Amino acid sequence: MINDNPQDTERTQRTVRPQEIARERVREREDDSQQPLMQQQQQQQQAIGKKCPFCGAINEPEVMFCAQCGQPISKMSCPFCGSEVDPDADFCETCHHYIRKDICSYCGAHLRGNEAYCPECGSPRGGLVCPTCHTMNDFAFCKQCGTALTAEAKELVKELQKNPDYKELMDVVQEYSRLEGSLPYNSERDVVREQMNMKLRERMLTLLAKDAGVENPVIPKVVTKRMTKEELEEQKSEKIKKLSAILDKLAVPPTSSPVQARNYAMASKPMGVRLAWVCNFKHALHSSPCGCAKPHLGGKWVVLGKNSTAEIKDDK
Fold first, then answer.
1. Residue 2 has pLDDT above 50, yes or no
2. pLDDT of amino acid 28
3. Using CA atoms, how far apart are residues 86 and 75, in angstroms rounded to an integer?
4. What stretches of the chain show up as alpha helix (H) in DSSP?
């Protein structure tokens, strides 16, 4: 039975409201009492260890990497310029110096830190001068011209040359370079002029052949490779697509060694086409992986083209 008496309804509301207010006050007291406890727990955790920003695990205060997920959780300072760098980086992108004293920058061998030469590859710790462009380098490949500077780097290039994808890459690069050097027709007048030149050539060769006693000379046709600007750009675009597809196959996968990743990337770089290195660390464009702090996170070469205006994070 529904109670329609307004007085009873008002009496019920008066009874319920104080109860609700009391409950809310109890909840507020509980929340207030829990906040100091939570803050105290957080302070204890911070005092005991370091919280990983990736997985939330608590680590020892002095560790550089999370014991749970392996991600870097601390920062280091560059010994040359003082800039903040990640603990798994081997190169400072601010001052462009190799910063690891315990790892050979040429082959990745472990060092004690005071050797003048790497005991594994024999490379000097002070750097190698490129015999081609005379650039001082901290790595196995010249950051300026890409020349292999160590015996191990040269062997790596030879091994890659046996790769079918690399062979196809070099063939496409040659085709693209030929197109880059091609001179297209600028107008219909150029087309007519070339046709007239071909007819003149045929006529001159015919006369010379008859003077030599050949009655019905056969003059070989010349197949011109010139094309219009539109045709040239279309062919170049097709070659760039092919290049990009092959470079994707040769992309550097994530690995544990920055040195090995950098060497593989430099060995797989084709000459004769303008490229840039896109790293997985910051997704920035570098002129080469020699300017990337974390090449071991992976990356790939991308085609820029002759007139590209893409901004490259150039290496000094």
1. no
2. 64
3. 5
4. 6-48, 151-161, 164-180, 188-211, 229-249, 258-267
